[in-house]
What does this fold into?
Amino acid sequence: MARATTQVKILVPGNQSMVALLGQRDAFLKLVESAFASQILVRGNEITVTGPEEEAEKVGRLFEELLTLLEAGNELTDSSVGQTIALIKGVGDDGGTALRPSEVLGDRLLTARGKGITPKTLGQKRYVDAIRSSTVTFAIGPAGTGKTYLAVATAVRALQDHQVSRLILTRPAVEAGERLGYLPGTLYEKIDPYMRPLYDALFEMTGADTLSRLMERGTVEVAPLAFMRGRTLNDAFIILDEAQNTTPEQMKMFLTRLGFGS
It folds into this structure.
């Protein structure tokens, strides 16, 4: 039996550019057309979607979400359109999403060097929300899923908004599978290679000059986990990176460092 078709019409407000919505040479429109079987017709500022009812409604919601992102001041890219398509189609961490794509992709954590840092997936959005609402958050996931990057972005934003007075980033000084032996230099020069991933994320979000000033004032501190013993950290945003390399005793020591407002 043939599936019934339906039409969904989307009227684009006059204050929105069709080029911004559909992309240069309709690049974004072609992405949408390749992801759905429905027919999409654009005339003036009206978009008509014809296809099976459920899919046509999804495509209609997709364009509405893209318009919401544009109205919030977000510039559409191939990546953000692709992520919106994935969220609308339900290709997420749990096979579906209760959040609107504009809520996920429109959650700007920070603007660094003219580039907005936002969650890219439903899982990343939930991670950021958990950090904001909880005293302690554990993030577990494969390499490259944004665990450290998003945590540092959220921390820098909390510092900018005066929610905390300092940032403390720490990690256990453990080599990645090979023994490096004795390292030359002072204590800080010896531990610097272990802290480099944290410096890289901070550098990208604050810039070299700003980061140097913050570290000189003690507003930002990057230190190995061994330096945490005996301290009580009040009014701070504390990130423990590569925590899988800690022992149970080290983890207990770290968790008991949290003071008031941290």
